[in-house]
Amino acid sequence: MESKSKRRSPTISTHEGEVPGKSTHREDSKITASHFASPTKKTSIKSPIKNSEELSMKPESKSAIASIWDIESAGGDSMQSHCQSEGNVQEQEVMLETSIFTGTSERIEPHRHYGVYLLRNRFDAIQLLTRNTSSSADDYGEQRVISEYREMRCEFRVWSPFQSKLAAGIMGGVSDLHLQIGSKVLYLGAGFGRSVSHISDIVGESGMVYAVEQIPWAGSQLTVLANRRSNIVPIVEDATMPYKYRYEVPACIDIILADLPPSILIRALMLNARHFLNPGGHFVAYLHSPNSQGVVFNKDSFAAERRLLKEKQLEPKEMVLLEPFKAGYAFVVGVYTRKDVSL
């Protein structure tokens, strides 16, 4: 009987402390789970980011404990000093931000033309500037630059040659604009007043800019600009009829700038010069050739216009092509040669 019982009973491997004849699968699974869970906790590898965060947080926790201890012992004096130190750090951060925004790393230099400046830095190309003389936020959405210039904090306005033919002429290398502080300027075809606003900066409060524009909705924009700048007089009239605004413009103009269609430009310039321009005064005309597509321009392309100007006693002295800023345009500077007739 003993042999039969030995044959029928299965062989069960028992561990130390186990009761023979009972299944130990569930207990083994628990043991193995707990056995493998504990090593993972001990040998868990933390990411370097978390380790760095913990290292960076440790001094803060110590400082926080120290600050609490100081509050309890000193009655809040350390908290005030701690807040003052944090305020100083914030003020330093704000000063750094404003210095970057205002362009203290940029260099502003005076241009050879009076009232025009150059902005140089390591990243952008050279930009033209005029010193702002208005208290308005902006005149036509131009960029503003605040920087130290000659130990003074000044605000400058960026003058783009792609938006102004006068700025394009400066970038083209014109030798003299004949614009000084206190100059009296007559601008024919002022448009929205972008160039007019920069001329207003150049001539200053002692100068005057008379802006003539025929289109009414552009004239309304000039009126808004004149409300911000006291040295601009908007005139909504036809530039070929100067007798209509002869009471608004004095007969002592120093320079006339004409930005008109080619069909009426020379005639309007001649009529306004006879009415308002001083003898020996200067003019600036923007000549445009209608055949601008596929044609290589040079100064000989405007020989007929220059000859016609000379016939009207408007002697051209200098010509600059406005490419690549204004394709097909030429910037002509001259002098009015008509003599004053004394009665």
Automatic annotation (TrEMBL):
GO cellular component: box C/D methylation guide snoRNP complex; Cajal body; small-subunit processome
Biased amino acid composition, Polar residues: 31-50
Region (Disordered): 1-58
Pfam families from the UniProt entry: Fibrillarin
Keyword Hydrolase in record: no
InterPro entries named in the record: Fibrillarin, SAM-dependent_MTases_sf
Keyword RNA-binding: yes
Highest taxon of the lineage: Eukaryota
SMART domains membership: Fibrillarin
Basic and acidic residues: compositionally biased ranges: 15-30
Known catalytic reactions: L-glutaminyl-[histone H2A] + S-adenosyl-L-methionine = N(5)-methyl-L-glutaminyl-[histone H2A] + S-adenosyl-L-homocysteine + H(+)
Keyword terms of this UniProt record: Methyltransferase, RNA-binding, rRNA processing, Transferase
GO MF: histone H2AQ104 methyltransferase activity; RNA binding; rRNA methyltransferase activity
Coiled coil: none
One GO biological process term: box C/D sno(s)RNA 3'-end processing
Family of this protein: Belongs to the methyltransferase superfamily. Fibrillarin family.
Name assigned to this protein: rRNA 2'-O-methyltransferase fibrillarin
